Amino acid sequence: MKSPVSVLALAAWLLSAPALADLKVFACEPEWAALAGELGGARVEAVAAVTGAQDVHYIQARPSLIARVRNADLVVCTGADLEVAWLPLLLRQANNPRVQPGQTGFLAAADFVTLLEIPVSVDRAGGDIHPFGNPHIQTDPRNILPVAVELSARLRAIEPDGAAEYARLLEDFRGRWQQALERWQARAAALAGMEVVVHHNSWIYMNAWLGLDQLGSLEAKPGVPPSAGHLAALLAQIGSHNPRAIVRAAYQSARPSEWLSGRAGIPALVLPHTVGAVEGADDLFAVYEVMLDRLEGVAP
Amino acid sequence: MNRVPFAFFALALPVALILVPEELSAQGVVSGNAFNPSISLILDGKYSYYSDDPDDLVLPGFLADEEIGPPEEGLSLGESELVMSANIDDQFYGFFTAALEDEDGDTEIELEEAWIQTLALPYGLGIKAGKFYSDIGYHNVKHPHTWDFVDAPLAYSVFLGGNYGDTGAQLRWVAPTTQFIELGGEVLRGDSFPANGAANDGAGAFTLYARTGGDIGVSQSWRFGLSLLSADAEERDSGEGDVTFDGDSDLYMVDFVWKWAENGNSKLRNLVVAAEYMHREEDGDVAIEDSGDAEYDGDQDGLYAQAVYQFRPKWRVGVRYDYLTSSNDVDGFAEPTLLDDGDDPYRFSTMLDFSHSEFSRLRLQASYLDTGATDDTQIFLQYIMSLGAHGAHKF
Fold it and tell me: What is the ipTM of this complex?
């Protein structure tokens, strides 16, 4: 049996734990946590389930995440089945009716942007493909604004007292984001038509934004780790082409891209896929600044 | 009759007829199967080698379930498991899984789980009802295709017949704290081992559990739990076939799991360490056909500890240690298995598995089992394949 002291200590810790002042946002990915921070300011406490160093496909419904969803006022995730291996379980385990799909407290970003690569037919022989389309929408900064508008509306609906402040923050963010988009668009012109090879097929929205030409990917099928045979075939396929970079995310193994880099004489390049993924990508704006900096570094 | 409404309808009707189909087509095809539940099918097959005949396996000191037996010798098919699940509406979620098993040339269907769960209760509460795998312990809720080894831990085989699933209702509460705390309790029919006979008018077993867990930095996470399973047994059969038990069976469990992955990026490399300790107290009467009754008071303990390391994206290696010990009082006649409680069975297992994708796995396992009475070397080669929907697995 527990001693009275430890029971008291437990009670004190239980009572002190929740911070009641903030609207709590549980974001699956860091980009949505950062966006909630931009749109909620000091009124919002936003945490991300995944860090920039982790593969969002392979997260587990950890105890700490269940506790966070239990206490969340709003859950913001990419959706489109990106988190299918863990989010549904997390939502059912957390017993929080406010953040179930269909409620104001659940926002799937992919519902508010146009998805690319929606497969005509789905077969696992094609790898771990996403039947609703490619979910890696955040690599195109033009997809951020429509999500921001919806996210801000949800914040206002959940906490009407802060409506004026949320509206002000949205307009402020919209202005700064549109200016940034114009700045980035000017830089994008020099990159148009540049050929790249990617590790996982998670950069198509960036390619569409910057006009990059993707020659192939290191994974023969999405989700199946690169094999020596496929890399050799890819090397032959590169042949007369002139890709400028082998692009991967920070959480992906360096070995396959470095192997190909050594053989083909093409630089291996880590691009920020989200906030905190690489050095310098410390906020939402910096993600695309660093992305452009690094691509310009290998451009002809 | 006023002419204006008539003229309005005369004009509006054809317009409406034209508009309606266009509006429907603009919304896309609405087909019934878009609402089908997630369906997946698990295929499992293996080859098993035993240096001793597995049909002769006896664990001295324990009244175990009839289904304690290890996989059949030689080539065999494991459970072919069909799983269906979906949100029923905004308030309920439903889950169903049935296993088809090949036994001596006949196909048997076992309803493993069929339950509903609430999604929208307030105050962190949730209710589950139906037939389900009890939430006690760590390993208990896992279906065989998610096991890290070919077979269940020895303590689960002996004390729970592999795992404890029964029909009943569960109430679960998640505390509104930053630290994860979960409390739960279940009332169950009491028809599955270690309960039997649906005692107490069909409420022959109950469970209580409490667990907590969290992260240590970004690379580590853990969970710790305590559980109790209290069951009444009426004429419970055990592995011997002609031995039955009437009485109380209480099982106390402690479970711990710790996971590590560099920066929390488990895809490249990760380590999972899990351990459980169980203590069972049984009190009642045992009867052997044609030999009469005896009073039986048993104290038994079991534990396992395992570590599974994924050292490359597709490869994992694992080790597991199992241990059982018992101290039984049997008063009345000589019940050979129960009386023989001086032997402490143990098993050591090691496995290597390869997963080409998340949906396929091939495994090689070698085990050494010493029951005290006999020792046995076991080798298994197994495939586990999953077709269809992407299953979400618990921590």
Answer: 0.87
